[in-house]
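Example for tutorial group B:
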């Protein structure tokens, strides 16, 4: 068996096209969706991510504002910046680029963001809404993963799903999203005994553990949908949490790294910002 590759770039491009159309319709009503990104310090990867988000916003018709703060920014200054954006009526989404420099409290900063502008979906209010099945913003990466699964799976209901990883950024919200789609969900992590015993049962396998090529083909159920969230640098290569070569011989569908989940994360950020602007309109 040779797996069908799930092209995240193509799926994301379709979402971006729809987002652009809706943004143009909003602008005709006098509302321009606006995203504000707070970037603290000089982390090279963070600067690349923010530039990519700026370009994506521009192409979609979303106004992007980047507030750049120095490495030695105090917690109070960061919090004041967030509060000012909360009060700005033209800002629909607020994103604090992580990680923050040492000495800054990420949890406190994220908790200050107005939940109605929390387009990253990390605020406890929005996480709680996901648990309760209530309306709210969903974290962009797991939301994008769900869209990729749905692009190749007509119905998730009744499927056995395994999520490897339990972070609040991917693992936990991913498990809840799948549960809300009526899958039977198992969450595995670093303390899980006999991991392959769980993964071999998965019709849907989401790997978000941060270990290069940890999941190999002999751990995958034939025909499974495999979503690889991992981005790991090994030498001069970027690899996922799944060993693509061996996994693609067993899986039915698989996302590549890069070009799988990554493009969807930014597309879902744009989508969340658009949704916030529609509420304002």
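The residue assignment follows.
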């Amino acid at each position: 068996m040779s797996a069908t590759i799930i092209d995240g770039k193509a799926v994301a491009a379709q979402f971006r096209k729809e987002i652009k159309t809706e943004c143009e319709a909003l602008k005709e009503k006098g509302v321009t969706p606006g995203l504000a990104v707070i970037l603290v310090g000089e982390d090279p990867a963070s600067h690349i991510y923010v530039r990519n988000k700026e370009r994506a916003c521009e192409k979609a018709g979303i106004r992007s504002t980047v507030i750049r703060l120095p490495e030695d920014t105090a917690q109070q200054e960061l919090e004041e910046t967030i509060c000012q954006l909360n009060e700005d009526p033209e800002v629909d989404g607020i994103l604090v680029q992580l990680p923050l420099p040492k000495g800054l409290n990420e949890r406190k900063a994220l908790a200050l963001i107005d939940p109605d502008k929390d387009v990253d979906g990390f605020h406890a209010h929005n996480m709680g809404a996901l648990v309760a099945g209530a309306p709210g913003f969903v974290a962009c990466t797991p939301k994008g993963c769900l869209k990729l699964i749905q692009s190749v799976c007509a119905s998730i209901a009744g499927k056995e799903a395994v999520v490897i990883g339990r972070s609040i950024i991917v693992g936990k919200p991913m498990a809840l999203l799948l549960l809300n789609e009526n899958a039977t969900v198992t969450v595995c992590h670093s303390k899980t005994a006999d991991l392959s015993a769980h993964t071999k049962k998965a019709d849907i396998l989401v790997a978000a553990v941060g270990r290069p090529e940890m999941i190999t083909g002999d751990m995958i159920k034939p025909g499974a949908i495999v979503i690889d969230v991992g981005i790991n640098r090994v030498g001069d290569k970027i690899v996922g949490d799944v060993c693509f070569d061996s996994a693609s011989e067993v899986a039915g569908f698989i996302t590549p790294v890069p070009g799988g989940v990554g493009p969807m994360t930014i597309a879902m950020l744009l989508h969340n910002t658009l949704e916030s602007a529609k509420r304002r309109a």
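The mean pLDDT is 96. Compare this with the pattern of hydrophobic and polar residues in the output above.
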